[in-house]
TrEMBL record, chain A:
Residues 245-255 have a biased composition (Low complexity). Pfam families: NLE, WD40. GO terms for biological process: maturation of 5.8S rRNA from tricistronic rRNA transcript (SSU-rRNA, 5.8S rRNA, LSU-rRNA); maturation of LSU-rRNA from tricistronic rRNA transcript (SSU-rRNA, 5.8S rRNA, LSU-rRNA). GO terms for cellular component: nucleoplasm; PeBoW complex; preribosome, large subunit precursor. It comes from the Eukaryota. This is Ribosome biogenesis protein YTM1. SUPFAM superfamilies: WD40 repeat-like. Residues 245-277 are annotated as: Disordered. Component of the NOP7 complex, composed of ERB1, NOP7 and YTM1. Within the NOP7 complex ERB1 appears to interact directly with NOP7 and YTM1. The NOP7 complex also associates with the 66S pre-ribosome. The gene is YTM1.
TrEMBL record, chain B:
Residues 1-107, 297-346 are annotated as: Disordered. It holds the Pfam family BOP1NT. This is Ribosome biogenesis protein ERB1. Residues 24-77 have a biased composition (Acidic residues). Belongs to the WD repeat BOP1/ERB1 family. SMART domains: BOP1NT (SM01035), WD40 (SM00320). Its main location: nucleus. Keywords: Nucleus, Repeat, Ribosome biogenesis, rRNA processing, WD repeat. It comes from Orbilia ellipsospora. Transmembrane segments: none annotated. The keyword Repeat applies. GO terms for biological process: maturation of 5.8S rRNA from tricistronic rRNA transcript (SSU-rRNA, 5.8S rRNA, LSU-rRNA); maturation of LSU-rRNA from tricistronic rRNA transcript (SSU-rRNA, 5.8S rRNA, LSU-rRNA). Component of the NOP7 complex, which is required for maturation of the 25S and 5.8S ribosomal RNAs and formation of the 60S ribosome. InterPro entries: BOP1/Erb1, BOP1_N_dom, WD40/YVTN_repeat-like_dom_sf, WD40_repeat_CS, WD40_repeat_dom_sf, WD40_rpt.
Length: 467, 760
């Protein structure tokens, strides 16, 4: 530490100094002395060592520094020149834990386009994916296919979600839904042998929608789940089948009849109707999610609106109309923000609380095609990943937004992505992305691959063997 | 000898000859014949003058010419011939005299050319040289006068009166002598005295003077000597006794003013009374040789100074720095180049001192080139038009203000083998259907680009057109393949909707059988074979020729098809609920031309039929032609009607996109020429966005903003927004069809490169 200080002193003999006010939003990392005069030729590393020195950490933590919503990537001097600022004025510097660029770890191939992914949260991580060929798969981290569903779906599976993740003791259940307008509840008991593949069978079919089901969202606390569909409706269901009415709708379309003939006999399922159907949208609903408070939900639709639903009363709480068709949504609970991905290639950040007056608080630009999926960072509340039809997964930091740029419509703030993860296979759309601490950032898409990326230095995980 | 002298000499010889002729006239005393002869001679003389022959030859020629000119020899001719020969003799004789003549009366002088020059005396016009005055007025004929010796007259005049014998000289004289008039005789008689009134000497003198218009006064001198009264010589006595005027004594005001001016100038130092002596110094005089040696011209408005030569640079120095000196290869390169190709017309050279610099041999040439440059390249002062080009452009809103509109390719629908002929978005906005050359109809998920359904209709014929029934329930897809129209309910919908659609389609089966047999219908409705039925095809309509285009009526009960190959029944209207087909136009003459596209009006019972050049609007309720539009295109490829129904866009193979306002005129309101190749398809957005687009064989789709105002006075606003590039051109075909998403500002295009694309 003393050598660092010495270095600082020696480096600063000739260089001009600038006063910086260090701040952070992480209370565990706050430093006592917040105003410093530092030489302007310092770069990120220099500042990082300085902060580590101040914090007196045993093991140095890499930090990144945000000045006016921009990450410091040059020396302070160069930043000042670029921004046209004087070194006389004190500079407000926010420091954050460094987000390391996720590097490519490996990928698992399937035999058709993969439409969706959901990682189980518990330590026994398994990757649930839905495929365009009408099946869902559960893949272990080592690439073994643990579970494959029987071809119950007559068409592509568009969305999957875990209800109870696999554990050695319990039966695991998950939901799948897709173009064939039915939601199927599957359950299986994980086998002891990881190399053998279990055939999962559906127990219940939930039937209400008249068009493609685009999204499912399960709330463990209420045991309810929501489904969004292209028929402009959102349906609320419960995993407790006894609460649901029995559905009487016919299913035997010509298409399914044909499928039925060709395949083996399928198990019969309980057919259930929804608790409630919400119909505030006037266009295909692209995604629905539960809010942090499980009695509320947010949905986005092609009709450009973000609607907050109260699930108890089935009423619309709030409607926010943006300027473009929206395709995806995610919450950032600690910041009281929701991020919405649009068909117009950008992500907008909104404050969903009724008290906020502005429609959108920031625009994140970078994607070159529709933004269809989000995943929150498991480590930082400010960081999330988005996947788009441009074949990229982008990682964004909400703090890194600046209010300067000119091309804003009404948001006032805009930002750029931290990192871009391209498809290793070359191209194709990304349809789903999920991010967990022990697996990393997992994305699936048109290239039929589950691609795993992980930032180096993230929490150590049991080795992921590339098969 | 010069030509002048020769002609002069010739004219002289001609004169001599005339003289000779005259003399011969005297000799032969046959004046008339000789007169002819001489006139002949004159006629020929010009010809002689023209020829540059020698004199002897010319005389010979004359003879020959005379002989030649005789066409009919006669008595007279022979005489003249003799005369001619004798004349010829005389001429030769005179020629001989000619040679001797100069000795007598011709002066020989040495001319300017050094040769002898003859100066002839002036010709004296003596009386006998000319006899033109002779008047021969013999009125009495050739009668001997002695016959009239005894009569006082000598014949009769033309009136039969006697012509009296003129008085003989002697009788006249005697008469005149007998009359002696006194001097001053007037023949008047004084009334008072009765005596003869004669004029006196003085009076006669006065009359004489009057006749000469002189002043009759005696002793008057019209030309007296001039006496100079007002001369410079000062007379002893003044002419006028008037006193001298005062102004002669007082000093002149103007003079004083002028003097005072000079005085003032001197005082102010402007005028120097004495020119200061130039100071003679021993210092040498210097001249600024770099200054313009041309005198500065006064600045005239039309004066354009010659452009200056650039000042010499480093390498033109007599001792340039080493880096400017060329090395061997550069030197060689320079020498090998043509003088015209050289970048510089000199090679930098180094000399130790300025005095060692040799004379510059290119100097004159260089100056010459410069002069050529200056006067062969005219310098013109141009009047620049100071118009801001931006101000000439019409004031259109910026495309950024007209968002949203499609800008980029979002999804590529891959799967078709061969061209994708047609694309149609389903009314719910979730699916998009395409038809292609591989005989398949495919349905895709819009955003992901996933093919969800495929129907192989035919193995050899292309699917030319696919269209969704434009109603909110009963999803029916119409596809045209060859001469068949398939009405399909794709199995991608909810079972309720599916059955509903099938019910709609199969409702007419019984109806059709009841009506059968009345007359030959243009289309046959039938159930498809089981394989197709399994896939969702409910009805097939078979018409006579290949169907190129299908359009639905807005209520979804009627659909109209075009088969351009069918001359007589190109346009067919099919009714879904009754399974009946009919041709609205009985004869070919009604449609006048091969129909290309047809379209129902979005709200009124009108049918738009586009032939190669015209668009005819038929009123289906009254069954009559209501209007004919003349877009002026050579070959219309496609039309589309604005959802409000008052405007129409027309695409043509001659690259034009035409906007018709149906209320305004039969001529297009606006012509848009932005495509490089023929336009294949045009489409209006029907979901509330003021957008339309055109697709072309140049591989692009162009998106326009086309806003219609409800105010009738305001014309439509048309703004080009975006050129969407992405489709490849395959065998000269680009984008074959376009369709808009029913609700979003998204555009679908079908390309000849085997892909369909979504643009958003």
């Amino acid at each position: 530490m003393s050598t660092d200080a010495m270095d600082l002193d020696s480096a600063s003999i000739s260089a001009p100094r600038v006063q910086i006010n260090l701040s952070t939003r992480d209370p565990t990392l706050s430093v006592p002395l917040q105003s410093l005069r530092v030489p302007t030729n310092l770069k990120r590393y220099g500042l990082s060592t300085l902060v580590n020195h101040l914090l007196e950490t045993a093991k140095p933590i890499p930090f990144d520094f945000l000045i006016d919503g921009q990450y410091l990537r040059t020396s302070i001097d160069e930043y000042l020149t670029q921004a046209g600022l004087s070194s006389e004025k004190p500079l407000d510097v926010e420091y954050v834990r460094s987000q390391l660029p996720p590097t490519y770890i490996g990928s698992f191939e399937q035999d058709d386009w993969i439409s969706s992914i959901h990682l189980s949260p518990s330590p026994s991580s398994s990757i649930l994916t839905g495929s365009f060929n009408g099946t869902a798969q559960i893949t272990s981290l080592s690439g073994d296919v643990l579970v494959r569903t029987v071809p119950m779906h007559t068409h592509s599976v568009k969305t999957v979600t875990w209800i109870s993740p696999p554990s050695p003791t319990n039966e695991a259940t998950f939901l799948t839904a897709g173009i064939d307008r039915t939601i199927n509840l599957w359950s299986y008991t994980p086998s002891a042998d990881p190399s053998s593949t279990v055939q999962a069978s559906p127990t219940t079919s939930y039937i209400s929608h008249k068009s493609t089901i685009t999204s499912l969202s399960y709330s463990p606390s209420t045991s309810q789940f929501l489904s969004a569909s292209s028929d402009h409706t959102i349906a609320l269901w419960s995993t407790n089948s006894s609460l649901l009415p029995t559905s009487t709708a016919p299913t035997s379309t010509s298409f399914s009849r044909k499928r039925r003939r060709t395949t083996s006999k399928l198990p019969t399922t309980e057919r259930k109707g929804p608790l409630t159907v919400l119909t505030p949208h006037t266009a295909p609903v692209s995604q629905v999610i539960h809010s942090p408070d499980p009695t509320a939900a947010y949905s986005v639709s092609w009709d450009k609106s973000i609607i907050t639903h109260d699930l108890v009363t089935s009423q619309v709480v709030d409607t926010r109309v943006t300027q473009h068709a929206l395709l995806s949504i995610a919450t950032l609970p600690s910041l009281n923000l929701i991020a919405a991905g649009s068909a117009a290639r950008h992500i907008t950040l909104h404050d969903p609380r009724a008290s906020s007056k502005t429609v959108q608080s920031a625009v994140l630009r970078g994607h070159t095609n529709a933004v269809v999926t989000f995943a929150r960072s498991p480590e930082s509340d400010y960081v999330f990943a988005s996947g788009g039809h441009d074949g990229c997964v982008r990682i964004w930091d909400v703090r890194s937004v600046s209010s300067s740029t000119s091309a804003d419509e009404d948001g006032g703030k805009s930002g750029g992505s931290l990192f871009v993860i391209k498809r290793e296979s070359g191209g194709g759309k990304v349809f789903g992305v999920d991010w967990s601490k022990d697996v990393g950032l997992v994305s699936v898409g048109e290239d039929k691959k589950i691609q795993v990326n992980r930032g180096e230095g993230m929490a150590d995980v049991s080795v992921l063997e590339q098969s | 000898m010069t030509a002048k002298t020769s002609t002069r000499k010739r004219s002289r010889t001609a004169a001599e000859e005339e003289k000779a002729v005259l003399s011969s006239e005297d000799e032969f005393e046959i004046p008339e014949i000789n007169g002819d002869e001489s006139s002949d001679e004159e006629d020929f003389s010009p010809g002689d003058e023209d020829s540059e022959d020698e004199e002897e030859e010319s005389s010979g020629d004359e003879i020959e010419d005379e002989i030649d000119s005789d066409e009919i020899p006669s008595e007279d001719e022979s005489i003249s011939k003799r005369n001619g020969t004798s004349n010829g003799d005389t001429t030769t004789g005179s020629d001989g005299e000619d040679t001797s003549d100069p000795i007598d009366n011709v002066k020989v002088v040495v001319g300017a050319d050094g040769g002898p020059r003859y100066i002839y005396p002036e010709i004296d016009p003596v009386y006998d040289s000319d006899d033109t005055d002779v008047e021969e007025t013999n009125t009495i004929g050739n009668i001997p006068l002695e016959y009239y010796e005894n009569y006082p007259h000598v014949g009769y005049d033309i009136n039969g009166k006697r012509i009296m014998r003129p008085a003989a000289g002697k009788a006249l004289d005697t008469l005149l002598d007998s009359i002696e008039l006194p001097k001053g005789w007037t023949g008047l008689i004084d009334k008072n005295s009765g005596a003869a009134l004669n004029l006196t000497e003085e009076e006669l003198e006065i009359v004489k003077k009057l006749q000469r218009s002189e002043i009759t006064e005696d002793g008057y001198d019209p030309y007296p000597d001039l006496v100079e009264y007002f001369s410079n010589t000062v007379e002893q006595m003044p002419l006028s006794s008037a006193p001298e005027p005062k102004r002669r004594f007082i000093p002149s005001k103007h003079e004083q003013k002028r003097v005072m001016k000079i005085v003032k100038g001197i005082r102010e130092g402007r005028i120097l009374p004495y020119k200061p002596q130039a100071e003679k110094t021993d210092e040498p005089e210097f001249y600024d040789i770099w200054a313009d040696d041309a005198p500065q011209k006064p600045d005239h408005i039309m004066n354009i100074p010659a452009p200056k030569l650039p000042p010499p640079t480093h390498d033109e120095s007599y001792n340039p720095p080493a880096e400017y000196l060329p090395n061997e290869t550069e030197k060689k390169d320079w020498e090998d180049q043509d003088p015209e190709d050289r970048e510089k017309n000199y090679l930098p050279r180094s000399h130790k001192a300025l005095r060692l610099v040799p004379g510059y041999n290119g100097f004159v040439n260089e100056r010459f080139e410069r002069c050529l440059d200056l006067y062969l390249a005219p310098r013109v002062r141009r009047n620049k038009l100071n118009i801001d080009p931006a101000s000439l452009l019409p004031k259109l809103p910026s495309p950024d203000d007209l968002k949203p509109f499609p800008t980029t390719c979002a999804t590529v629908y891959r799967g078709h083998e061969g061209r994708v002929r047609s694309v149609a978005a389903d009314p719910s906005g979730v699916w998009v259907a395409t038809g292609g050359d591989d005989g398949t109809v495919r349905v895709w998920e819009i955003l992901t680009g996933r093919q969800v359904w495929k129907l192989k209709v035919s193995s050899d014929e292309a699917v030319d057109s696919v269209t969704w029934r434009p109603t909110s329930e009963g999803r029916i897809l119409a596809a045209a393949c060859g001469n068949e129209i398939l009405l399909v309910v794709p199995p991608i919908f909810d079972s309720e909707e599916e059955t509903h659609g099938k019910e709609i389609l199969s409702a007419g089966f019984g109806y059709a059988t009841n009506k059968e047999g009345k007359k030959e219908a243009p289309g046959t409705w039938s159930k498809p074979d089981s394989e197709l039925e399994e896939e969702g095809v409910v009805v097939t309509i078979t018409v006579r020729k290949t169907v190129k285009y299908i359009a639905w009526h807005r209520r979804g009960d009627y659909l109209v098809t075009v088969s351009p190959e069918d001359v007589r029944k190109a346009v067919c209207i099919h009714r879904v609920s009754t399974h009946l087909s009919q041709t609205p136009f009985k004869e070919k003459s009604v449609t006048k031309g091969i129909p290309q596209r047809v379209q129902f009006h979005p709200s009124k019972p009108l049918l738009f039929v586009a032939t190669k050049r015209y668009i005819r609007i038929y009123d289906l309720a009254k069954a009559e032609l209501s209007k004919t539009l003349k877009p002026g295109a050579r070959w219309i490829s496609s039309i589309d009607i604005h959802p409000q129904g008052d405007n129409l866009i027309v695409g043509s193979y001659d690259k034009r996109l035409l906007w018709h306002d149906l209320d305004l005129s039969t001529k297009p309101y606006r012509t848009l020429r932005y495509h490089d190749r023929g336009i294949r398809a045009v489409a209006f957005h029907r979901g509330g966005f003021p957008l339309f687009c055109s697709s072309s064989d140049d591989g692009t789709v162009q998106v326009f903003h086309g806003k219609i105002y409800s105010d009738l006075m305001e014309n439509a606003l048309i703004v080009p927004l975006k050129v969407l590039k992405g489709h490849k051109i395959v065998s000269h075909l680009g984008v074959l069809d376009v369709d808009w998403h029913p609700k979003q500002p998204w555009l679908f295009s079908a390309g000849a490169d085997g892909t369909a694309r979504l643009w958003n």
